[in-house]
């Protein structure tokens, strides 16, 4: 099989990112929900599988450390990062419960769950969104394709309508950076962007 041309791959990435333009209102609502939670002393819980686990960790890092502004740390947890907990839960229960159990045990009223799944159908993400709803926790889901089953479970679904997983993940990175920019601007309006 011949390799797909470089420019074709670039165009596929750009196409997925360009499709984000229709999400402006939903992204603003998501960043406001997260900023309000953080301003109230609550935290952001993030989760995902595989490449989406990396996106989950990326979002939690940008919040807890910083993106552009030299500001205080914002409380965020990557639920995909604790191998001991995840393997224990997968062994003692099922892998479907690795995020839901953390939501149930760690989330408090006013927290926000941010879930990443390119298919929108990962069972452990669906269970996490269900656990958030059962616990009275608001949720945001970064999704792909048609949003899958997760679109109906999340309070704010952010759907990248692209077919390829890699392009959805690229667009998710753009979205998580935009969310962080909007959160920093909302919470720290007097601080300048660092060089």
Description:
The protein has one domain (8-187): Glucose-6-phosphate isomerase like protein, domain 1 (Rossmann fold, 3-Layer(aba) Sandwich). A five-stranded parallel β-sheet has the order 2-1-3-4-5, sandwiched between helices. Helices cover 51% and strands 13% of the residues. It starts with 5 loop residues before the first helix and ends in an 8-residue tail after the last helix. The chain has 195 residues and is of the alpha/beta class. Helix 3 (51-64) packs parallel to helix 8 (165-187). The mean pLDDT is 97.
Total number of strands:
5
Quaternary structure of the protein: single chain
Helical content class? 40-55%
Q: How many domains? A: 1
User: How much β-strand is present in the residues?
Assistant: 5-15%
Q: What low-confidence regions span 5 or more consecutive residues with pLDDT below 50?
A: none
Overall radius of gyration: 17 Å
Query: What is the arithmetic mean of pLDDT?
Result: 97
Give the termini separation.
45 Å
Can you name the CATH architecture? 3-Layer(aba) Sandwich
């Amino acid at each position: 099989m011949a390799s797909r041309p470089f420019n074709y791959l670039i165009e596929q990435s750009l196409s997925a990112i360009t499709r984000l333009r229709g999400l402006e209102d939903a992204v603003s609502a998501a960043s406001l929900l997260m900023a309000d939670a953080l301003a109230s002393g609550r935290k952001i819980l993030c989760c995902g599988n595989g490449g989406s686990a990396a996106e989950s960790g990326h979002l939690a890092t940008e919040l807890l450390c910083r993106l552009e502004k030299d500001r205080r740390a914002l409380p965020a947890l990557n639920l995909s990062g604790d191998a001991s907990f995840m393997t224990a839960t997968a062994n003692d229960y099922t892998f479907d419960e690795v995020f839901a159990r953390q939501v149930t045990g760690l989330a408090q009223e006013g927290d926000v769950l941010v879930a990443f799944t390119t298919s929108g159908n990962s069972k452990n993400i669906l269970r996490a969104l269900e656990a958030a709803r059962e616990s009275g926790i608001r949720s945001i889901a970064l999704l792909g394709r048609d949003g899958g089953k997760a679109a109906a479970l999340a309070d704010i679904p952010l759907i990248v309508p692209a077919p390829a997983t890699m392009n959805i993940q690229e667009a998710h990175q753009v979205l998580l950076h935009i969310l962080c920019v909007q959160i920093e601007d909302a919470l720290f309006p007097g601080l300048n962007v660092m060089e």
